[in-house]
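Async update (no meeting this week)

Hi team, since we skipped the sync, here's where things stand on the single-chain job. The sequence we agreed to prioritize is pasted below, unchanged from the tracker. I ran it this morning and attached the output directly underneath so nobody has to dig for it. Comments welcome in thread, and please keep replies under the output.
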Amino acid sequence: MPDCQTRLGMRRALTFITGLVECLCFAGILFGWASLVFVLKKEGYFNYLCVNSTGINGSQVLDCSGQDEQLSLVFTIASFMNNFLTVASGFIFDHFGTTVARLLGIGFHTVGTLMVAFSNSALSVLLFPALSFIAVGGIMLLITNMQVGNLFGTRRSTIITLYNGAFDSSSALFIIIKLLYESGISLRACFLFLSICSVIHVLRTFFLFPRTIIPYPLPDDYTYGLSCNKRKRVKQNVRSQKTTESEPFSNKAPAKQEKTLRECVLSRLFIWHVIWLSVIQLRHYLFIGTLNPMLQKLTHGQPSLVSQYINAFAFTQLCGVLCAPWNGLIMDRNKRKPLPEGMSEHEADLNSSVLSLFLTSLMGLVFSICAAAPLLPLQYFTFIIQVLNRSFLYGGNAAFLSVAFPSCHFGKLYGLIMAISAVFSLLQYVCLALVKSVLHGDPLYVNIAVTLVILLAFVHPLSVFLHCRNLASQRVKSQLQ
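Output:
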């Protein structure tokens, strides 16, 4: 029925566009923390930790290092929760479906924004649970939106990476709040508006998403939401829960047994993917943690020059949504081409990811070398390659998991790998302590050591390439027999 197909196409387009706006404006706002801190300090949060101290010339100065440390702790805990609790979010998504996961994520996000809205300097401690709720709610919104890529088979990886780029760029929201605050709009009004926007998230959940998970590959005549044929939708949803096979359903062909979660986690592909993500992510976290002292050293302590480079770094971070789709286009480049002889669609997708993994590893190595080089003008290029590599890293992570493993385990595997990488990223504190105590503030030798560790990331694309070649050779042998 043409009218039905038109409505379905419009619904899919609306789901995609509204999902992009949701990720861009709400999901990853935590990472604009530096802009929000400016407002919080103006509002007097944790100002009781500021104490009078004696300056170099004997004058009295206000020392607010305690306030800065407490605000930094709020972000540290929230960012750790953002990654570590992703495993719980993934299990909820896989076991209870889209509706439950989204309602829970919306609930967390709304509670977090309301807690910030009704907090004040006397209730500064509310920032700890509030930002953690916002972080966890945001990552659940991202996980449920990434499945929208399943609706667009030939552009699946492109959409997944685009959503991850939008998640990175959503840090711009706190910059907007800072500008609104400076123009006279209160912090409470801004966060109350974010809370009210949760109504839109709820409407998307019930009208633009299925109750369960969008399957991949997408079955024929798959519908969701308000359908023009309710019986067809119910029948298709039942079928999609029973099978997630790559091959068309057939009574003559027995269903292929999917890998268990244990088999996926213990596979060589997953283990090397964990190492690939963890070592490159550690490089990024360490760079951000040592950026200010590094610039202080390279500029010989000139405040205006340090501010200039910090502003340049902040601006480049907003470009993640523009960089991320490039990686998806690389992974989807063979979608419209005929499959190579003897190769299944799954194997072709997996083989296409090799170039993406290699380029991400190469950019990570170049970024690490530039960051370690004590050349101030070079840091502009470092900022550009950093945001490009970060966009490829997180978008490629989600896209690879969706290609390499059964879709029924995507949420759990995505959550597990983010949790493991979060624990691994705690090594940044060891490195920072080493820089501060043993190396007297000079991160050069730690940067060189981390650059050497990044070489491990190149093993992953090689492993995937050999895996695909082995599968092809096994199929050739079986056909000859």
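Quick observations from my side:
Residues 229-255 have pLDDT under 50 and may be disordered.
The two ends are 46 Å apart (CA to CA).
Reply here if anything looks off.
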